[in-house]
Automatic annotation (TrEMBL):
This is Thiamine thiazole synthase. NCBIfam families: sulfide-dependent adenosine diphosphate thiazole synthase. It comes from Ophiobolus disseminans. During the catalytic reaction, a sulfide is transferred from Cys-212 to a reaction intermediate, generating a dehydroalanine residue. Binds 1 Fe cation per subunit. The lineage of its organism: Eukaryota, Fungi, Dikarya, Ascomycota, Pezizomycotina. Keywords: Cytoplasm, Iron, Metal-binding, NAD, Nucleus, Thiamine biosynthesis, Transferase. It catalyses: [ADP-thiazole synthase]-L-cysteine + glycine + NAD(+) = [ADP-thiazole synthase]-dehydroalanine + ADP-5-ethyl-4-methylthiazole-2-carboxylate + nicotinamide + 3 H2O + 2 H(+). It holds the Pfam family Thi4. It comes from the Eukaryota. Belongs to the THI4 family.
Length: 316
């Protein structure tokens, strides 16, 4: 028995596609009329002319202009996962005067937020994180104490597009932060973070099998590190701080406890050493916080808090 047609008075049908058509909230209109000039005469179709060097110059002139401009940034964010992207969006929209460099080791930003848990599609966020979804215009189903975005990629793609649309953000993807720039500050042996050391990720992965391939740099008085929990690339900055004797040791991420993990990560997002704010799952490695598993509200709100901590430092 097919479900009653909610929007059209059609006879019950055993053909499911008819039921689908009957319930479409958006009526099909065919190829968008804005493309009809093309689709109406394919045999006559041709692109405007171009020379290969024009493509090369269009890409390289812009990329190297960005490298030159962002060599001195106001804020660097390491890691464009759900926390880093939320921090970038919040900071860029709150302070459009700040120049923000967003460094992402992967070709594809988004970290672990393209899927829910165990490769399932839906993404769960506990309230009040739905306020951020409202802010960026992502639809969700309200389940009472939590909401569900129908596909994690809808959240991540929407947030990524909003970040990339910000005039004051430059995403350097496929680019790894290999080290931190430091300045001696305070008591003997203590430092302030003053930027990042970068390299193409493919180069960073092959230092061992090539002669020295030195890195590049970005100076910035504030760095937000959201590189995720420990893994091949994860927990980068906090592991580097231990190696530089700026942290005694890592607390190590604890077992899964959703009820405690998310509050701890959001409330604990803070400046760990002068100039370096840590958020998201990277923070769990510092504080020995529990993991929360496949719920993402803490990542988003930790990103919001990291942005607020950065604004406090800017305004100091
Ligand atoms: O998604 P992640 O790994 O990290 P977060 O903190 O944004 O979100 C964590 C979240 O996905 C979870 O782990 C969920 C909630 N599960 C928890 C649990 O209990 O299992 O994004 C980190 C990003 C990635 O895209 C990395 O590629 C990137 O950071 N990255 C780096 N980018 C540049 N330079 C580096 N050195 C670097 N290290 C990591």
């Amino acid at each position: 028995m097919s479900p009653p047609s909610a929007t059209f008075d059609l006879p019950a049908s055993t053909n499911p596609t008819n039921v689908l058509k009957a319930n479409l909230s958006v009526k099909p209109t065919g190829i968008a009329t804005s493309l009809s000039a093309i689709s109406s005469n394919w045999p006559a179709f041709t692109f405007a002319p171009i020379r290969e060097s024009q493509v090369s110059r269009a890409m390289t002139s812009r990329y190297f202009a960005d490298l030159d401009s962002y060599a001195e940034s106001d804020v660097v964010i390491i890691g464009a996962g759900s926390c880093g992207l939320s921090a970038a969006y919040t900071l860029a929209t709150a302070r459009p005067d700040l120049k923000i460099a967003l460094l992402e080791a992967g070709v594809a930003p988004g970290g672990g937020a393209w899927l829910g848990g165990q490769l399932f599609s839906a993404m769960v966020m506990r309230k009040p994180a739905q306020l951020f979804l409202n802010e960026i215009g992502v639809a969700y189903e309200d389940e009472g104490d939590f909401v569900v975005v129908k596909h994690a990629a809808l959240f991540t793609a929407t947030l990524l597009s909003k970040v990339l649309a910000c005039e004051n953000v430059k995403l350097f993807n496929a680019t790894t932060v290999e080290d931190l720039i430091t300045r001696a500050e305070g008591e003997e042996g203590r430092v302030r973070i003053a930027g990042v050391v970068t390299n193409w990720t493919l180069v960073a992965m092959h230092h061992g099998d090539q002669s020295c391939m030195d890195p590049n740099t970005i100076n910035a008085p504030i760095v937000i590190s959201t590189t995720g929990h420990d893994g091949p690339f994860g927990a980068f900055s906090v592991k580097r701080l231990v190696a530089m004797q700026q942290l005694p040791q890592l607390g190590g991420m604890r077992g899964l406890d959703m009820g405690t993990a998310e509050d701890a990560i959001v409330k604990g997002t803070r400046e760990i050493v002068p100039g370096l704010i840590v958020g998201g799952m990277e923070l769990s490695e510092v504080d020995g916080a529990n993991r929360m598993g496949p719920t993402f509200g803490a990542m988003v709100l930790s990103g919001v808090k990291a942005a607020e901590e950065a604004v406090k430092l800017v305004e100091k």
